Amino acid sequence: MSDGDLAAAMELSKGTVEPFSPAKWADHVQTPTPETRFARGLVAESGGEVIGVAVGTGLTLNLEGLSVSAQTIMRRMVLLDFLAVRADRRGEGWGRRLAEAFLDRYRAEGHRAALANIAPARDDLVSLYRHWGWHVGAPAAGLGIQIGTDAVLINEKPVRTAWLPLVPEVRPSLTVVPGALVVTGIFD
Fold first, then answer.
1. Confidence at residue 33, expressed as pLDDT on a 0 to 100 scale
2. 43 neighbors 66 (Cβ within 8 angstroms)
3. pLDDT value for 49
4. Which of 75, 91, 123, 175 has the most CB atoms around its CB within 10 Å?
5. Three state DSSP letters for 127-173
6. pTM of whole model > 0.90?
7. What is the largest CA-CA distance in the chain?
8. Would you state the pLDDT for residue 60?
């Protein structure tokens, strides 16, 4: 991602990433740390103009006592942290192609599941993500995932959590915790 691409991508993010901090975002996609070393930014261009951007990273979970290491979690689950397409280019399939290309890079490295957060005010995105094949939960419901032998509820923020299996072995189960949806197969 060039500096010009980053400036155009950050223009797309204005008003959607709170609080808006160009320096923090630039560091996130250009200067890996132990927490963001699996981070990526991908830009879609048409006619030399940036029309869309996807940014994400291996998921970081700081939970004590898990049977799976934090690094393994980062290498198996990816968070699609930000996806935007210029308003005048929406409806042309750029968002889906950009998300697919972005996730293909993680899939090729062995990531098995993707997560995305849908802000409470963005009910319009629920049908879009579902159309793309994502599973979308209820607001603030979190997501149950099986990590080793543990069933863990993550992301109980006031957002909807969407998840997408990147390999066929990742699937929902109602038997790990009877009556509760738990995503399995990520750490098999």
1. 57
2. no
3. 87
4. 75
5. HHHHHCCCEECCCCCCEEEEECCEEEEECCCCCEEEEEECCCCCEEE
6. no
7. 52
8. 79
E strand or H helix at 68: none
Query: Among 152, 115, 147, 112, which Cα is nearest to 134's?
Result: 115
Residue 185: its pLDDT value, please?
A: 95
CA distances to 57, 128, 157 from 125, rounded to whole Å, are: 21, 5, 17
Q: Express as a percent the part of the chain with pLDDT over 70.
A: 80
Sign of the CA dihedral 71, 77, 79, 84?
Answer: positive
Q: What pLDDT, on the 0 to 100 scale, is given for residue 18?
A: 43
**Beta strands per DSSP E along 8-142:** 40-46, 49-58, 77-85, 113-118, 135-136
Q: Which long-range contacts (CB under 8 A, 24 or more apart) does 155-159 make?
A: 155/115, 155/117, 157/117, 158/120, 159/117, 159/118, 159/119, 159/120
Residues in the chain predicted with pLDDT less than 70, given as ranges, are 1-38
Q: How far apart are CA 178 and CA 112, in angstroms?
A: 24
Give the position of tokens 């738990």.
182
